[in-house]
Amino acid sequence: MIKDQSAAFGAERNRGNAGTSMPNEEEPTINPDLIRREGFASEAEYRAYFDTLGRDVSAPTDDRLGEPVRISKEHILESRLQELRGELENLRARLHGIRHQAATVVTENVRWADSSAHAQLGNQPWLKLAGAMAGAFVITRGLRQLPWGTVATTALPLAVAAMNRKFARR
To answer: 40: closest CA among 50, 27, 31?
Structure first.
């Protein structure tokens, strides 16, 4: 805190009227003794400055060192509550972003499916797809009503005879 003697630029020469001349010609409201623009010329000046501030520049006493800093439980809880509120707002903002991204993904998937259907089936792809599904339903219902036992009994000897003829040619 002691100023180097060679670093005196002239500010300490005007130390007596520091803070009295304001550029806008207003009355100073700060005590000029409390304004320090540079370091101190000596240790005595340093101590005198802190005395004007009302502080003791001597080493801290044991009674000051032994006192722990006391923070009330209410202050700790209020601080933690504020932290949690901040985290909650952060999570809400992130959730809003995720919802927006999910909506964008769903919209883009619908667009892709629509353009893919148009590319594969031409005009009115959903009508053509619905017709194919209805046809599959009707064919399945028809196949369920066939007497499969009779069909299998009739078709099995025909299939075996066809396989025998194929192996006989070789």
So the answer is: 50
Tokens of 54: 């009302």
Is this model's pTM higher than 0.85 or not?
A: no
Cβ density class 34-72: b for 16+ within 10 Å, e for less? eeeeeebeeeebbeebeeeeeeeeeeeeeeeeeeeeeee
Q: Are the C-beta atoms of 45 and 61 separated by less than 8 Å?
A: no
Report, as an integer, the average pLDDT of 93-122.
92
**Average pLDDT score over the chain:** 77
User: How many CB atoms are located within 10 Å of the residue 28 CB?
Assistant: 13
Which residues have CB under 8 Å from 129's CB, separation 6+?
117, 121
CA-based torsion, 20, 23, 28, 29: positive or negative: negative
The 8-class DSSP code of residue 16 comes to G
- Check whether 26 has a pLDDT greater than 60: no
The pLDDT score that the predictor gives to residue 87 is: 94
CA 86, CA 91: separation in Å to the nearest integer?
A: 9
